[in-house]
Amino acid sequence: MIWIALLAIGLVAGVLSGMFGIGGGIVVVPMLALLLGFSQHAATGTSLLVFMLPIGILGALEYYKAGKITTENLKYAIAIALGLLVGSLLGSKLALSVSEEWLRKGFALLLVAVAIRLWFKA
Description:
Blueprint: H1 2-20, H2 24-35, H3 40-50, H4 57-65, H5 71-96, H6 100-121
């Protein structure tokens, strides 16, 4: 049963990623923690493992075919990926140094702040 739930989480995250460019932090982590009972640390670590796979390639190809991704976008993506490489190392060290409760509350605060910002900028 857990495999069906995991596949469903991946499917939802994939659809939302293709539509809005979101997935890991906003979809996968909360679903793993809230629906499947993962600890906040385990949910975050599992979400990071997903980044190891070329998960966005098919969606990115669709945007490329539609003329929405240029060579300049590719350069930007590489720069962001390099930042993610270093940032995920630093962020994981920080996350593992704080309590489960603090990590969960900090994550919730981030989601609320992003939601409020998006709501008022819509």
